[in-house]
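Researcher: Here's a chain I'd like modeled. Treat it as a single chain, no partners, no ligands.
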Amino acid sequence: MSRTKISGQLGTRTDRLQLQARTSPYWVVLEKGRALGYRKGLKGGTWIARFHDSAAQRAYKALGAADDISDADGAMVLSFSQAQEKAREWFRTAYYQITGERVQVGVYTVRQAVEDYLADRERHGMENVDRVRKDFAAHVLPTLGNYPLERLNRKKIEDWMTVVAASGLRRRGKERAAPGTADQKRSRKATANRIWNNPRAALNHAYEEKHIQTDAGWADVRAFRGTQVARIHFLNVAEQVRLVNVCPSDFRQLVQAGLFTGARESELTRLVAEDFDAVNGSVFIEFSKNRKSRHIYLTTEGQAFFQELVAGLEPSAPLFRRTQYDRKDRRNTGEWTRPEMTRTMRTVCDAAKIPRMVFHELRHTYASMLVNAGVPLVFVAQQLGHANTRQVEKHYGHLCQAAGPTFRWTERWGRPPGLSRVDRIQM
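Model: Modeled as a single isolated chain. Structure tokens:
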């Protein structure tokens, strides 16, 4: 409940008796953009509420008569404190009329913050919102869902992260045994850090939307340290050849595209024929993880692969469709889903006699090949769609020491944008 404002000018009928009658109200500011006014007439006064937002839109409301002559009844005749309470009730209506947004009444919980955040992400086209929603349902809402944001603090959140880190890995909605080895514990702490990113974004969204006055409850939360290790599972050329050879025809094209572009699986499955530019030798990614577009420049082999792939296709025709389907209990929609790609990848890795990996690790293989070839990290970051080289340096920087001393891009990869044909990349 909001605190009642004290005013030496409007607080009592005795104070108001000293004021001169006038058309313009006497105002007292209750909160930023919200004020209560008193219009003094010859035979008593009237309470007025005023609301305005950052766009300078204003709204006014006559609340009732002041208790200058008659005693306050809380309905038609209002005291100063009753007028404040009635004004604050009307402010919520005025806010909705001007902005179209509802004002939260009562305790605002983590669950409500999550729901508002997911609705905002859907409105802005977040592609993995369903996956994020499942993470919330599995890890966040059961423990923190009904907790009020105003009571949330660093200790509460870090205790929750400790519980998540000590819990077992979840597969198909079921929790497995708790981590035992040092590597398993490190991995679960890394998972806890990743999961924390989602509720932190939801809490920050609630703060930005003014559902809570401060973000002090979570601003200083410390994530687990020492949880990240450099990725070392990259396929060499012989393993790439074996993997491609054992793939079924429809999946083989998807795997080859992953090795030629380093694109994410979701980016590849959205490609259509017109996204390949034969003139520039590039593939256009319209929507990436960060909602930005980019061009991926191809090697000579990559250009030949896509040239053959788009031959005879309409510009809007999808490049990668699923044609082979052996699961009898489901209908083939022609689209690759993440679970089906994971299962197929596991099968072909076993057949190729290489360690099991997920499709996304083809992206790591692509990046490692560029780094080993002596390609500048800034260009590798551009190819992968990163805003800067931080992630490239973190996961692939150690490969630079193994790269050859000199590499001419034009001999194997074609000329990268921004480099002349005679440029050599010195390591």
